[in-house]
Inverse folding.
C-alpha cells in the first residue's frame, strides 16, 4: 500500500468555516455557544478514545457520537476503496428517527452515488433527500476526500445550523487524523500477522477468497463424527470449511494425538496434497455444516490460476508439513541405531523428501532394545519401520521399498507417453520441471534418491540468486519441488534409470526395477557425485563414519567431536563452516595451495576467521583406521611428505566430480571424463565405439546431446560452469538454440504422423508448445556452485 497515494501521509487539517454571530438574544446565544464549546471538547477528546482501534471502529464511534450530539435522523460514512479498509460503508439510524425511509433505502440513495462523490454526485443526492423532507450536510475525510466522506441527515427545520456545520468539520478533521493512525496500525498488525508462522500455517480465508475458490469445488453438508479422510488415503480433496469445524488428529497404537482444530474459513491439506501423496493424519467433523470440496486436480488448477490463493495455500501446506516433521507427527516410526548405516540412510531419505516420522534410537532406549531382543530381531534387520496404526512393518527396507510403502509414487503412470521426462531432481532438473509444467507440458521427474542433488545436502547456500540471507539446500529443493508440483509436474522417487533405449521413438527409459517409461523428449540432469579418493578404502566405512553431505542429521552425530572435511570447493567450505558450530574441531584438507580458484571469496573469509577450522593446504588422505567404524584418519602433506593422524569418527568427502553417466555410454557422446557433450562441444567426427554419429542434417542445438531430442543440463554436461564462476553468457544465442527442442522431436515423421509402432493416437508434435519444451536457457545456470578441487 502506498500511503501517500491515499492521503495517509501529510494530510493537513481542514479549515473551520467562519461563523457569523448575530446576538439577537444574548442569553440564548451564550447557551448555544456554551453547548458548542462542550460539544467541541467532546469531539477533541475522541482521538484518545479510539486510539488503537481499527478504522471501522473509529468511524462507528464517530457516527454514534454525532448522531446523539446533533439529534440527527441518520449518520453515514463511506471509506474510499483506495483506503483499503472493510467495511466500506457504515450507516447509523436514530431509534426515534421520524423519516419515512428504511435503512436499506437510505443506503441505496447514498451508497452508489457517493462512490463517485468527487465527480459531483452530491446535488443529485441532496435533491432526492429533499423530496423525502430530509436535509443533508457532507464533509470530506482527508484533504481531497481521498479517505472517504461523512453525510449527516435530519428532517429538522433549519438543519444544519452554523454551529452544527462547525462541529461536523471539526469531527471530520479529527476523524481523518484518527483514521490515518488506525490505518497504519491496522497495516502493522496485518504485516505482523503475516509474519507469524502460526497464522500463516492456519490462515482464515476471507469471504471473497472463498468465493474465488467456489468454481473449483462443490459444496456439500457433513455431519458430526464424519471422517473426511484417514491416514494412508490417496487423492483426498482439499476441504474449505464454510460453516463446520474439524479436529485433525493422528491415530497411533497408543491412541489419538491432536494436531489442531480447524474453524470456519480454514482449509485442510498439507504439502502432500499438491503432490497427490497419501494423507498422514485424520480429519473428523466436530461441528456439522457445509464444506467446499476441491479435488486434487482442481486444486492444482486453482493454485495455477489464482496467484493470491496460491500463495496462501502453498505457504500453509509447506508450513504444516514442516510442523509435522518438527513435532514428529508422521504416519511411521523408524526404530534404529545411530551407528547403523542403513538407519542413517533411511532417516536421510525421509528427511530430504520432507516426510514426517518419529525416530526411536535403540542406543538410548533400553525398553525398545530389550523388546527387539526378546523377539529375536537380528542386527541385520535394523532399522525397523512401523506404521502408526501397526499395519505396516518393514525390516531394514530399501529406500525404494519404503517409498512404495508410503505411496510416494502412487500417482506415477508408466503406461502413458510423456511429453518430457527429466532424469535427476537437482536444481537444474527441478528448474526444467517448473518451466515445463508451468507451460502445460506433461513433465515427469525421475529421481534416484531425493530432490536437490548435491545442493540438497548443503547446510547453507549464500551466493544463490534471490536469497540474500542464504538458504539450506533442502529448503531450496523442497520449495522447487512444490513449485513444480503446483504446476502439475509429477515425481518418481527412489527410482534409478539404468538404461536408455533409443533405437526408435518414443525413447524408452528403463528403471532399476524393470519399469519402462516412454518419452518424446528427455532432459538429463543426473549431476555428478564426489570423487572417492583411491588411496584409501572408503567403502569399508561408508555409513560408519564416511559422509557425502553435511546436514542437521550428520551434525548431530558430530557434536563435540573432531571431524575432517576433504575438498576445496564451495560445498566443502559450506560444510566446514556449518560443522564448526557443532564439532569441537574441523580439519579441512585441500589438495591445492590456495582456495581462490575454487571457492567463493565470502566462504574463504569465513573459514580464515573461524578458530574452530584448521585449513591444511597441499594435503591428501593417506589412511583410515578402525574396526567396525571409523576411528582414525591420517593425511599427508604432498610437498614435504609429513604424515599427520588424529582420532576422528567422521570424515566428509566433498571433492571432485564424477558424472552419473555410466548408463549412457554408447548412447550419447561423452568426453574423456564421462560428461555429456552438447551443442558446439560435439566433435565433428564421433568415435563410433563410444557413441553413434549425429543422424540429422541440421547441427545439434546448444544443450542437445548427440542423440536428437535428448538434452543435458547442470553438472552432468561437459563444460558446465558453476554459478560462482559464470560470467555473462551470450543469452540470446542460448535462447535461440534451446527454443528449437521441439524441432528436434519433429525430425521423426513417424511420430508426427502418429504412426510409430505401438502408438496409434500420438498428438502432433507441432501441438506441443515450443515455449514449454523448453526454456532450457536458464536450466543450465540454475545449478548451485560446483566443485573444482
Amino acid at each position: 500500500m502506498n500511503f501517500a497515494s491515499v492521503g495517509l501521509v501529510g494530510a493537513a487539517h481542514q479549515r473551520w468555516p467562519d461563523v457569523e454571530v448575530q446576538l439577537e438574544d444574548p442569553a440564548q446565544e451564550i447557551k448555544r455557544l456554551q453547548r458548542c464549546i462542550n460539544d467541541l471538547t467532546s469531539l477533541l477528546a475522541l482521538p484518545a478514545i479510539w486510539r488503537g482501534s481499527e478504522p471501522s471502529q473509529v468511524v462507528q464511534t464517530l457516527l454514534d457520537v454525532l448522531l446523539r450530539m446533533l439529534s440527527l435522523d441518520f449518520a453515514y460514512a463511506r471509506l474510499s476503496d483506495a483506503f483499503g479498509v472493510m467495511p466500506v460503508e457504515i450507516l447509523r439510524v436514530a431509534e426515534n428517527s421520524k423519516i419515512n425511509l428504511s435503512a436499506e433505502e437510505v443506503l441505496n440513495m447514498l451508497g452508489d452515488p457517493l462512490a463517485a462523490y468527487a465527480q459531483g454526485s452530491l446535488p443529485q443526492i441532496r435533491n432526492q433527500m429533499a423530496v423525502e423532507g430530509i436535509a443533508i450536510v457532507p464533509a470530506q475525510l482527508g484533504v481531497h476526500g481521498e479517505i472517504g466522506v461523512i453525510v449527516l441527515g435530519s428532517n429538522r427545520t433549519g438543519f444544519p445550523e452554523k454551529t452544527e456545520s462547525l462541529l461536523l468539520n471539526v469531527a471530520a478533521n479529527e476523524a481523518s487524523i484518527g483514521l490515518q493512525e488506525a490505518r497504519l496500525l491496522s497495516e502493522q498488525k496485518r504485516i505482523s500477522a503475516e509474519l507469524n508462522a502460526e497464522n500463516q500455517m492456519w490462515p482464515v480465508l476471507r469471504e471473497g477468497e472463498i468465493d474465488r475458490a467456489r468454481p473449483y469445488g462443490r459444496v456439500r453438508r457433513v455431519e458430526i463424527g464424519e471422517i473426511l479422510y484417514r491416514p494412508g488415503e490417496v487423492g483426498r480433496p482439499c476441504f474449505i470449511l464454510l460453516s463446520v469445524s474439524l479436529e485433525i488428529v493422528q491415530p497411533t497404537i497408543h491412541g489419538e494425538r491432536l494436531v489442531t482444530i480447524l474453524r470456519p474459513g480454514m482449509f485442510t491439506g498439507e504439502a502432500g496434497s499438491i503432490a497427490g501423496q497419501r494423507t498422514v493424519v485424520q480429519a473428523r467433523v466436530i461441528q456439522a455444516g457445509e464444506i467446499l470440496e476441491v479435488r486434487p486436480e482442481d486444486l492444482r488448477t486453482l493454485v495455477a490460476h489464482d496467484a493470491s490463493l496460491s500463495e496462501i495455500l502453498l505457504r500453509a501446506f509447506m508450513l504444516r508439513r514442516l510442523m509435522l516433521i518438527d513435532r514428529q507427527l508422521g504416519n511411521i516410526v523408524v526404530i534404529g541405531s545411530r551407528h547403523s548405516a542403513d538407519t542413517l540412510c533411511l532417516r536421510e531419505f525421509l528427511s530430504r523428501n520432507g516426510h514426517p516420522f518419529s525416530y526411536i534410537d535403540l542406543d538410548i532406549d533400553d525398553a525398545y532394545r530389550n523388546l527387539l531382543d526378546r523377539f529375536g530381531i537380528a542386527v541385520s534387520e535394523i532399522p525397523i519401520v512401523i506404521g502408526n496404526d501397526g499395519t505396516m512393518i518393514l525390516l531394514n527396507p530399501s529406500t525404494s521399498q519404503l517409498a512404495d510403502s508410503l505411496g510416494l509414487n502412487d500417482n506415477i503412470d508408466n503406461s502413458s507417453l510423456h511429453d518430457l521426462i527429466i532424469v535427476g531432481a537437482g536444481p537444474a532438473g527441478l528448474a526444467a520441471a517448473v518451466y515445463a509444467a508451468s507451460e502445460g507440458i506433461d513433465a515427469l521427474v525421475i529421481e534416484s534418491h531425493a530432490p536437490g542433488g548435491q545442493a540438497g545436502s548443503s547446510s547453507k547456500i549464500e551466493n544463490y540468486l534471490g536469497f540474500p540471507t542464504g538458504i539450506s539446500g533442502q529448503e531450496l529443493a523442497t520449495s522447487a519441488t512444490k513449485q513444480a508440483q503446483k504446476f502439475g509436474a509429477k515425481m518418481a522417487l527412489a527410482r534409478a534409470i539404468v538404461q536408455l533405449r533409443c533405437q526408435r521413438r518414443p525413447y524408452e527409459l528403463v528403471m532399476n526395477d524393470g519399469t519402462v517409461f516412454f518419452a518424446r523428449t528427455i532432459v538429463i540432469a543426473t549431476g555428478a557425485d564426489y570423487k572417492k579418493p583411491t588411496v584409501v578404502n572408503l567403502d569399508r566405512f561408508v555409513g560408519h563414519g564416511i559422509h557425502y553431505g553435511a546436514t542437521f542429521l550428520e551434525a548431530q552425530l558430530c557434536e563435540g567431536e573432531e571431524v575432517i572435511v576433504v575438498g576445496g570447493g564451495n560445498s566443502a567450505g559450506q560444510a566446514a563452516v556449518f560443522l564448526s558450530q557443532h564439532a569441537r574441531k574441523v580439519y579441512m584438507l585441500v589438495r591445492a595451495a590456495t582456495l581462490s580458484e575454487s571457492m567463493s571469496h565470502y566462504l574463504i573469509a569465513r573459514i580464515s576467521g573461524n578458530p574452530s577450522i584448521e585449513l591444511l593446504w597441499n594435503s591428501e588422505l593417506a589412511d583410515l583406521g578402525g574396526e567396525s567404524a571409523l576411528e582414525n584418519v591420517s593425511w599427508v602433506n604432498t610437498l614435504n611428505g609429513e604424515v599427520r593422524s588424529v582420532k576422528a569418527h567422521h570424515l566428509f568427502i566433498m571433492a571432485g566430480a564424477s558424472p552419473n553417466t555410466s548408463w549412457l555410454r554408447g548412447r550419447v557422446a561423452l568426453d574423456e571424463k564421462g560428461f555429456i557433450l552438447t551443442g558446439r562441444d560435439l566433435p565433428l567426427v564421433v568415435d563410433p565405439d563410444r557413441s553413434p554419429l549425429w543422424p540429422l542434417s541440421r547441427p545439434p542445438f546448444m544443450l542437445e546431446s548427440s542423440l536428437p531430442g535428448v538434452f543435458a543440463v547442470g553438472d552432468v554436461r561437459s563444460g558446465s560452469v558453476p554459478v560462482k564462476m559464470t560470467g555473462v553468457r551470450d543469452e540470446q544465442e542460448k535462447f535461440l538454440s534451446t527454443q528449437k527442442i521441439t524441432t528436434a522431436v519433429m525430425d521423426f515423421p513417424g511420430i508426427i504422423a502418429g504412426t510409430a509402432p505401438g502408438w496409434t493416437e500420438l498428438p502432433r508434435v507441432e501441438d506441443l508448445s515450443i515455449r514449454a519444451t523448453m526454456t532450457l536457457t536458464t536450466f543450465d545456470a540454475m545449478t548451485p556452485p560446483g566443485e573444482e578441487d
